[in-house]
Design goal:
about 20% strand; alpha/beta
């Protein structure tokens, strides 16, 4: 493979080229495979660009908040919901889970979707999602295809987990697993970092790699062949995610103009670590919390509310035309300096999926109530942890039961199986009495 040596030399990676020449047999083949998976010209350009620029990505001074409304009158909401159910019933909606992250903050060995957040049922995040999808599919009378993006680091474990659990009762034909791409970490002076003798330090290329991976894996074509027109994209760790929410789908379909829609919540406080929806140079998008200058972060309206208040909860809906467009479009690379394979201050690059929005033009913000739809499991303890997720589920499900006039114990929390209720429907006093201890479990607040 003299071609690889030439590519490396041209990209300033002579050290790696020389090292490769010292290897033989399978070890050489393994390293060659890693090298061939990378775009060395792009890595060279990235290092040159990032090492001379400031680390924080520039936010334009022309930043305007994106207005959004939470809720709609009942009639409108019902119309959206019914529209969404009709679209789902025609098989035109798919779910797309991005689950290629490393979940380092949670500190759980293995794919985050396998994590048991400690509910009385001990269901994993994957199981909760699979059950919600199946319940909705049964209600609308059509299977919902499910694309699951993994990374080379967790692909096998993810597929094995689903296989061991018999795909949670779903038809295997409706699930597609595929890996996202990787990008090589670079040393402070831009040299490729090796992981052991015959591998490169390849890290997942960020959740923004999802558009490329969806297309390159053939999954986009698979969805198009099946007649899918809307793709519901979400993160693995939101324990309250209403997957393929019909009202959300119906709202985008009724609006007509936008290529995508995103769920938005009011920020909990100025310092909350969520990106915000805003217009930058008149283009809609998301500004990551770490990139939002303080004066914008703390800016308030005359009534004291935050000006930049639209929090991104990573729940998006794309029209299939939008995904077709994004398969070849270039997203910016974000940079972090981390210790990799014992080398300090290495360069790690990743793309963020929300950087796609400015490329799609108009987008539709869809305001939702945090307590009903957003409980991310990011940290082992404290904020956004398994404990906060358990409590939020417990309180939300108790509220569903209260509205259904069930005789609940107001001091307890409840877990309702998604096989019984997708979003609070199908509950009553009778159902409560019948299902308590089965599909409805009572537990204590911690
Ligand atoms: P996070 O930004 O929370 O990252 O991912 P993470 O890797 O899961 O967790 P930490 O930061 O290491 O603790 C948000 C969503 O994007 C996915 C994650 O799996 C999660 O669903 N993701 C992240 C990918 O699919 N690929 C990536 O390269 C990164």
């Amino acid at each position: 493979m003299s071609n690889l040596i030439e590519i490396l030399n041209n990209a300033g990676q002579e050290e790696l080229a020389n090292y490769l020449n010292t290897l033989e047999g399978d070890a050489r083949k393994r390293l060659e495979r890693d090298i061939a998976s990378q775009d060395w010209e792009e890595l060279k350009a990235l290092h040159a660009e990032k090492s001379t620029a400031s680390l924080s990505d520039n936010v334009s001074s022309d930043l305007k908040p994106m207005p959004f409304k939470i809720g709609a009158d009942d009639l409108r909401y019902e119309f959206w919901k019914e529209t969404g159910e009709i679209i789902l019933g025609k098989g035109q909606v798919a779910a797309f889970l991005v689950a290629g992250g490393q979940g380092s903050r949670l500190g759980f060995e293995g794919p985050k979707g396998m994590f048991d957040i400690g509910l009385p049922s001990h269901k994993s995040l994957f199981q909760l999602q699979a059950e919600r999808l199946q319940n909705l599919a049964a209600q609308v009378g059509h299977a919902i295809p499910w694309c699951i993006m993994t990374s080379p680091l967790n692909h096998e474990a993810t597929v094995n987990f689903f296989t061991e659990h018999n795909f949670f009762g779903m038809d295997r034909q409706n699930i597609r697993f595929f890996e996202q791409g990787t990008i090589c970490a670079l040393s402070p002076d831009g040299k490729a970092v090796r992981d052991g003798e015959d591998h490169l330090a390849l890290v997942p290329d960020g959740n923004g790699g999802c558009f490329r991976a969806l297309a390159q894996s053939g999954s986009l074509a698979w969805l198009i062949e099946r007649g899918v027109r809307y793709v519901f994209l979400y993160s693995v760790d939101n324990a309250l995610c209403r997957i393929c929410d019909p009202a959300f789908i119906g709202a985008l379909a009724s609006e007509g103009r936008s290529m995508s829609a995103s769920k938005v919540v009011h920020k909990a406080n100025a310092g909350e670590k969520v990106g915000i929806f805003a217009f930058q140079n008149n283009k809609p998008g998301v500004v990551e919390y770490s990139d939002l200058p303080e004066e914008y972060r703390d800016m308030t309206n005359p009534d004291g509310s935050l000006t930049f208040d639209g929090g991104n909860i990573a729940i998006h809906l794309f029209k299939i035309e939008g995904l077709r467009k994004l398969q070849t479009s270039k997203l910016p690379w974000h940079t972090a300096r981390k210790t990799v394979c014992g080398i300090e201050k290495c360069w790690k690059f990743e793309q963020f999926l929300f950087d796609a929005f400015p490329q799609l033009g108009s987008m539709m913000p869809f305001g939702v109530i945090r307590e009903e739809e957003f409980s991310p499991v990011k940290n082992a303890e404290g904020n956004d942890s398994p404990k906060t997720a358990r409590t939020m589920i417990g309180k939300l499900h108790r509220e569903w039961l209260r509205k259904a006039h069930a005789e609940i114990n107001p001091n307890k929390l409840y877990e309702i199986s998604p096989t019984l209720s997708y979003a609070g429907e199908n509950l009553s006093r009778r159902v409560f009495e019948r299902e308590l201890g089965k599909n409805i479990l009572e537990f204590d607040e911690e």
